[in-house]
Automatic annotation (TrEMBL):
The keyword Ligase applies. Coiled coil: none annotated. One of its GO terms (molecular function) is metal ion binding. Its cofactor is FMN; Mg(2+). The chain holds residues 176 to 401 of 401 of the full protein. Signal peptide: none annotated. In the C-terminal section; belongs to the PPC synthetase family. Catalyzes two steps in the biosynthesis of coenzyme A. In the first step cysteine is conjugated to 4'-phosphopantothenate to form 4-phosphopantothenoylcysteine, in the latter compound is decarboxylated to form 4'-phosphopantotheine. This is Coenzyme A biosynthesis bifunctional protein CoaBC. CTP binds at residues 103, 113, 147, 161, 165.
């Protein structure tokens, strides 16, 4: 045994993390997506594994290596991500929804490449399933942690998501802020929890922030003996 090994407070727990953007196909060569880099989600998965959890990382398309000790499942669309999360939900202890899931997808996926026409064009969209909201309705013992990326009224929108999705915690960040956005290696967040819990973290590297977030959540849950 390594004398200097880090404590493993999540040993015996199964943690499911979703990360990255989703891709919603328009035709065989085009899709809708967003600027998520996956960095925060991968950092959360790495921190969970370091803390001893069996860690499943359900990832949209990103160009990041699989963190040590983590099992990655690659998915493309919001529908794929939902299907994969469902498979791992029942025996999960904690689900961390870091992914920037597309809210809309094209109603029809064109089987062939769309050819340009004279004049403009419209793509008709429909809503995807809100995975976190779905899990909030299904959860039995699982701790549900969502993220909220906002450009304005962060506290108001984050608290609203906590309620609406029946999450245990929402980790909110202001993506309009320099060095706290999708591509950044650093982030600054405020965590909102049930019963008015609120805690802000300093700007720091995503890897360190992920460790502090998981340690804080673990400590809160131990305190409330759940
Ligand atoms: N989320 C999800 N499935 C979706 C959309 C969002 O599971 N189809 C999850 C995200 O992974 C995140 C949380 O919900 O953990 C909040 O995502 P966000 O985009 O900030 O909120 P929305 O509810 O989609 O609201 P809006 O985009 O309008 O702010
Ligand atoms: Ca959204």
């Amino acid at each position: 045994a390594d004398f200097f090994a880090a404590p493993k407070p999540l040993a015996g727990k199964k943690v499911v993390v979703t990360a990255g953007p989703t891709r919603e196909r328009i035709d065989p060569v085009r899709f809708l997506t967003n600027f998520s880099s996956g960095k925060m989600g991968y950092a959360m998965a790495e921190a969970a594994a370091q803390m001893g959890a069996e860690t499943i990382l359900i990832s949209g398309p990103v160009s990041l290596p699989v963190p040590n000790g983590v099992t990655r499942i690659s998915v493309e669309s919001a529908a794929d991500m939902l299907e994969s999360v469902k498979l791992h939900f029942d025996d999960a202890d904690m689900v961390i929804k870091t992914a920037a899931v597309a809210d809309y997808r094209p109603i029809a996926v064109h089987p062939q490449k769309m050819k340009k026409q004279e004049g403009g064009s419209t793509i008709e969209l429909e809503r995807t399933v809100d995975i976190l909201h779905y899990l909030g309705g299904q959860k039995t013992h699982q701790l549900l942690i969502g993220f909220a990326a906002e450009t304005n009224d962060v506290a108001k929108y984050a608290k609203d998501k906590l309620q609406r999705k029946n999450a245990d915690y929402i980790i909110a960040n202001d993506v309009s802020e320099a060095q706290a956005g999708f591509e950044s290696d650093t982030n600054r967040v405020t965590v909102y929890g049930k019963g008015g819990f609120e805690q802000s973290f300093e700007m720091m590297p995503k890897a360190e922030l992920a460790r502090q977030l998981l340690a804080m959540i673990h400590e809160q849950e131990e305190r409330h003996d759940r």
